[in-house]
Specification:
9 helices, five-stranded mixed β-sheet, Nucleotidyltransferase, domain 5, 317 residues, alpha/beta
Length: 317
């Protein structure tokens, strides 16, 4: 029984397989275009006059565990419409193969699915097991080319800046705080752009942002009905900053309390059992004075010293 190879490979009408060769686990398929005419991409008129021939090397989905390379023998047509600015054009094979593409549409969709399911690096390691040779950059590029869904309704909005390119180009990321999901990306981090986005979403009830003034101003203008609050990270950071300031101001008192407790413990350990201390006195170490102990910019240093002393005192037997 003779099998139609073109039908087995799911080729569209107008394409036929002329030869197949296998070398080093690569399946090379020669395909010719057989349509009698092609439509001009500008004037949409059918053209039948062939001007020249050329080939295209196209990657396709794997077949039988083999990588597939398709060599398309296609044509250039001459448009016979007098007022058409395109005199010569290449025949179009869409949607099976887009113009200037190096892979078929079905292979591109497969790579998009791998990227959405995994990621760039993991997808590039997983794809060879399916007979697909690709790179992390290709996977990410195909994923980024997907059209974005329209922004959904959001009642609790989280807003912050993020980097398109680290340290060079920044934008704004918008997150649904209920679903913990990114819903939109803005091209910059200006107040005007964020305000315009919030004005298009009057259902916003809560806006969580950082301690910067730009997003707070955007929330006041774009969502005046919403309650503003600091996000979880900045709430923790605010608490840490205040505790560091307080501990830095109390650093001399904390040091004095530690020295007094250490002296009492030393006296009890070196008493003769009858409550009388031995003649040898403990050598008290004098801590270096902390300059500007009450200033906020040395808060972190003061807190670190206090915590270190506390750990050392608790570790002593």
């Amino acid at each position: 029984m003779q099998i139609d190879v073109s039908l087995m490979l799911s080729l569209p009408d107008g394409l036929e397989v002329t030869s197949i060769a296998v070398a080093d686990l690569v399946l090379t398929i020669h395909i010719v275009a057989t349509a009698k005419s092609s439509t001009c991409p500008l004037c949409t008129q059918a053209a039948m006059r062939v001007r020249s021939y050329y080939t295209r090397l196209i990657a396709d989905v794997p077949c039988g565990g083999h990588q597939v390379q398709s060599i398309f023998h296609v044509r250039k047509f001459r448009c016979e419409t007098a007022d058409c600015p395109r005199q010569v054009f290449t025949e179009r094979l869409a949607p099976f193969l887009e113009p200037w593409a190096k892979m078929t549409t079905r292979l591109s969709k497969t790579i998009e699915t791998i990227g959405l399911t995994t990621c760039g690096e993991l997808g590039a390691r997983f794809a060879p097991h399916l007979g697909i040779q690709t790179s992390p950059t290709t996977i990410l590029r195909r994923t980024m080319a997907l059209p974005t869904c329209p922004p959904e309704q959001v009642s609790q909005l989280g807003i912050d800046d993020w980097s398109f390119r680290r340290g060079r180009k920044f934008g704004t990321i918008l997150v649904n705080l209920v679903m913990h999901k990114v819903i939109d990306l803005l091209p910059d981090r200006t107040t005007e752009t964020a305000t315009a986005w919030m004005q298009a979403h009057p259902e916003i009830d809560i806006v969580g942002c950082d301690r910067g003034g730009d997003y707070a101003a955007a929330a006041r203008k774009g969502a005046p009905q919403a309650i503003q609050c600091a996000d979880r990270f900045h709430l923790t950071q605010n608490l840490t900053d205040r505790i560091e300031v307080i501990l830095s101001r109390c650093s001399p008192d904390i040091r004095k309390a530690f020295r007094g407790r250490d002296s009492s413990a030393f006296s009890e350990d070196h008493s003769g059992g009858n409550g009388k201390e031995l003649t040898q006195e403990p050598n008290e170490w004098s801590s270096a004075p902390v300059p500007l102990a009450g200033s906020a910019h040395l808060a972190h240093r003061g807190t670190s010293l206090c915590l270190a002393e506390l750990r050392e005192s608790e570790s002593d037997p």
